[in-house]
Structures are given as C-alpha cells and as structure tokens.
Amino acid sequence: MRAADALVKALEMEGVEVVFGIPGGAILEVYDAIYDSGIQHITTRHEQGATHAADGYARASGKVGVAFATSGPGATNTVTGIATAYMDSSPIVVFTGQVPTSMIGNDAFQEADITGITMPVTKHNYLVTEAGDMLKTIKEAFHIAATGRPGPVLVDLPKDVTLADVEFNYPKKVSLPGYKPKLDGHPRQIKRAAELIMESERPVILAGGGVIISNASKELTELAETIPAFVATTLMGKGAIPETHPLSLGFVGMHGSKYANYAVQESDVLIAVGCRFSDRTTGNLERFAPDAKIIHIDVDPAEIGKNVGVDVPIVGDARKVLARLKKHIQYKQRKLWEDRINKWRREHPLKYSRDGFKPQYVVERACEIMPDAIVTTEVGQNQMWAAQFFKVRYPRQFITSGGLGTMGFGFPAAMGAQVAFPDRTVIDIAGDGSFFMNIQELATCVKYEIPVKVLVLNNGYLGMVRQWQELFYKERYSATCIGCEKTGFEAIARGFGAVGMTIESPGEVDDALKEAREIDAPVVIDFRVDYQANVFPMVPPGAALNEIIDIE
Amino acid sequence: MKHTIAVLVENKPGVLARAASLFRRRGFNIESLTVGTTEREDISRMTIVVEGDNRVVEQVIKQLNKLIETIKVSEISEGSVERELCLIRVHAPPEKRGEIVELTNIFRARIVDVSRDSFIIEVTGDGDKITAFIDLMRQYGIKELARTGKVAMVRGNKR
After folding, report:
1. Which chain B residues have a beta carbon less than 8 Å from that of A143?
2. Which of A135, A409, A447, A473 is deepest in the core (most CB within 10 A)?
3. Is A301 in Cβ contact with B65 (below 8 Å)?
4. What's the ipTM?
5. Catalytic residue among A9, A13, A110, A332
6. pLDDT tens-digit profile of A302-324?
7. From CA A247, how far away is CA A338, in angstroms rounded?
C-alpha cells in the first residue's frame, strides 16, 4: 500500500479523530490519502493556527493533537506552535512534508531543515528517510508525545517516502532502550515527604500544570483535605483544585493574589507537584519561601533542582505519587496557620477600581454567566485578568500559554478545544493585540461552524508592555499604542461571516455575554474597556513574592 | 571545575547534533566532545568534558538523559583512565632532528611521518602530558596541530 495511506491508517489506529493543517506540494500524498478516511481534517488559515489548535485540542481533551503542514514555509510556520506546546508539555504530533530525499540538502524549492530547526523545541523529532521505517516512527512519535512528561514530536516526511510502497505492519510496541519514564516515585522519598508534612505547622501545596496533565486533580484535592494544606497553583495549574474549594488560594506568582504569595512565602513545608518553579511563579529565587523545606514531585528528573534547591525529590507521575503519599498522612489541625491565611484572604482580596469600564469586570461577569465554559486566553493583561477573576472549577477548563507566553495562542487553541467538545461553551479571553496575531482563523471557525466566543478586552494597547512602561520606563509608551479603538472588530467579524458585537459600557456586558452564549456560531465581542487599567497585584521582576505592588 | 561525562547513545543520525544543540541552548560550556562507536555498532559513546560547578554538571547529566536516544549517562571524573591523541607537524631541520627524536622518545610519542624539513609526531596521554609536549615542540616551530579531545573509561570492573 502507498505509505501515505499507511500513515492515515496508523493515525486511525492511534485513535486520531481530527487533524488540523494546510496542504502543500510536499505533503500532497498524505492529503490525497486522508480524503477517503474517517478522520476529519480542518484546514486552518495559517500553520501556526493549526499547531495551536492541535495543542488546544490536546489540552482540553487529554488526547494527542495532530497537525499537518507542507515543507519549507509550511513547516517553519508551525514552529511557534510547537515551541508553545514544548514549554507547556502538551502532547502534539506534527507531520511535515519534505522535499524528496534525493533533493534534501540541495536548497530545493520549499526546502527547510525542519528537524534541525525544531530540535530545541520538540521532545523528539524524526526525518523519515526510508519508507520502511515510517510506521515504526509514527508509533514511537505518539508514544513519546503522550508518555512521561508529554511534549511535541515532529515527523518530517519526504515526498518520495510518502509515495513509496509499504506493507502495513503497524507495531504494537515501541522499543526505545533509553526512554523509560519513572512513574512510581521512590517509596523511601515518599515516606520522608510524609514525615516532613506531618511535622509541619504551615504546609502549602504548590500545584503546577503537571497535576492537570497527569489527571491527578482528585488525588491532589484529597491530599490537601487530608493534611490539610492550602493549595496555591501556578498559572498552568489553575483547575488542579476547584478554585471554589475552601483550601484553594488561586494562583501565585507575579500577578497572583497577595494571600497566595504570602502563604507560599511563609510556608514551612512546600509540596510542589508538577511545577517547574518558573521565574514568573517564584519571584526572586534567593528569597523564595525562605523557611520552607521543599518537596518536589515531578515526572521529569531534570526539573528537580533546576531552579530551586529541593529537600525531598520525588521523580514520578503526580497521580501515582500523590495517591501513595496520602496513605502516609493523618489529619492534623493547624488552627493558627489556617486563621492566618484566612485573615490574609479577608484583608487582601483581589480587587480593582470600579470607575469606568474595567476589563476585570468583563472577566468577572463571564465567569458568573458561563462558569463551566472552557476558557482559553491570549497573552498579556487579558491573560492575567482571566487568571485572577475567572474561577476555574475543573481541570482542563483553563487553557493558556504559560511557558512561552505566545500571543495569538488563545483563539486557535479555543478552536481546538471546541472541536474536542462541540457541545460546551468555549471562550477566548483576548486582548486586541493578541487577537490580531491569529485573527485569520475566524474564517476557519465560520467554515467549520466552530462556535467559539472571543471576548476582546480592547484597550488599544499592547497592554502588559504598556503597564511595564508605565511602572518601569517613566511612562514612555514606545510603540505600544496600537490604536484598536479605531478597529471595527464587529465589522471584521461580519466580514469573516461571524457574529460581531461592540460593547461600550458595563451595563451592556451581561446581555451581550448571555446573547453570545446562545448563538450557535463564532462570536466576537469588542469590549471597549478603559485603556489605563493595569494588572495588580504585581511582584516586580527581581523582587521576592511578598514584595508586592498593589492598588490602594 | 572540569567534569568528564560518558554518554552512551543509540548510533543514529542527528544524535551528536542533538547533544551539541542541548549544550548550546542551555548555556553549558563544552570543553571537549569526542564520539565514536563502542563494542556494539548500534551504540556510540560520547566523552564530554564540561566546565562548571556540581549544579551545572547535575543539570547536564539530567538533560542528556532526557534525550530519547540516550541510553546511559555517567560521570567518570574520578578513578578513570583518560587519554587524548594529538598529531603535531613540527619544523625539523637536519641539525635539530636528534633533539626532537630524543624528546619524542622521552614522552613515548612516535614519529609517524618524516619529510625533508618536518616530522609528524603522534602523542597520546592525559591532557597535561600533551600540553607539556606541545610546549616543548614550540621552540622548533609547530606547523600544524590536531588534538582529539578526551576519551575516558573507569578503571577496573566499576562501570
């Protein structure tokens, strides 16, 4: 059978239901093969959109997301999406076309060394030079993408390889002598961790994206209740515990709440699970949680000790380790600590000025009106307001580009999430700057009837950069005013065939959101919010977590 | 401090590039890197000398371990046999040849090529010995020099 047909058959065997991509010369065989298959193909308008959509699909569903692109520019356009997935450990497999093997290295038309280019941003990548290796490679690619610490895998397929004749012999097992993720966690370390927790008076759990990836939310919540310990999450960990839970502190770090930051900073034992201590989470590392013994649970050994010195390292899958750890813990009341945290919560709630039309208000109302919606975000102020004011209730509800901070991620990711869950409400909380970076995917949403709702918090600025200029560059607003108050997002939406709305005052917000929720089509709401609004609290770069700027 | 790390990898195209790219992008400083096959032709061995404190070396080892094609990584800085090979083309006029031959013998090096006015000398040993020999040869005029970087192996049965 033609290798391209074998590829499609292999995808079916991997359970792939949908592929996002754009055809082109070097990958035409594969597109010819998928034409007759049961796999849905969604043609995006940009390959970056395809990879983000595959990523959003993966994050929402927990399955592997798949994207196709052709050689050369098609392949290079996938790089931002791949790097985004890499930083946030999202399992995607990207197939790129390549010029025929005989032409590789000759600077042929639409040739790019995509395996070389993506080496630093993939968990692994392959250039298939023999058709006979293709099926084994696909099997490995899916296995590597989804196991251990997940991540993107790229498979580059020269045109002559996809055209060749192969026998369909899809391997059942992979043989990778060097790849054996440790999942169980060392029993002695787990015991040591339990002892530390039992001795502690001020325990805090710091939950990262790894908790969500390993589907460990139930185990995490149970452990938190057993100890009991308050839970702060990283941005990627939002949803690891329902944010309505009494033990939830919401998210911590540069724009986390004061009480979450204080709690982490003053803890005596910090149980970090599936998080990598990014600089946005820890603030100044030298003064991070100075009194805390640190227990670090992560499936990737390289994360342990990378940024923060660790007292008890546990390499393993969060779900397995948390379940085991819980067995060694007995409930112990810590009244003083509980009172102290609750006092911080009362004294320093998240707040914003109610004058004018504030972006935070839009997020708050969206959370009230669509509490169960899957929320994706763009990057910048919109992302931080979403993180602060949208109370996430379940894992995989909140999808955001944490590591790479990719503007333009949220909208195509929402598209992917909506494809995974056609019956759920999916909203992208966007800034005008970010929305522009992949706005062309509106055409995709219209064509495939993907009813994503885009809430554009339009302040006419690259807002987060503007905020930094205000605070740290003497209000010299160099190049950040992009003037979207002159942009008609409503008309743009209509131009693409979607529904558009413009909202200019807080009084109209509820009706607009309710109306959008009911429309079974893509909707763009242009919220003309105050451009001066900033994200507070804020831990300035280089400061410790408890050195916080806040509004009075 | 310098650390010597041995890495066993699957012998596949691109593995060296992957390892080297990892060092570059994480900002680790490679002092030297040698690679060749082992007793099994499907497995290659890299010997990497890296400069840095213990934390850096720990990260280097962990990150190398993350590469899918890596089979085993070990630090072999202590109790190991370390060798480097160097080829030196040295200016050798007739009146100096006696001296050069003598020095070559003292260092248990070998003259592997003789031409009208130069020798090629092969010397193996640890880095210090080779550096010392090179310094001695400078007085005659070194015309060309090639050093391999270190290969190393742990002594005895410890592996």
Report:
1. none
2. A409
3. yes
4. 0.89
5. A110
6. 999 999 999 999 999 999 999 99
7. 10
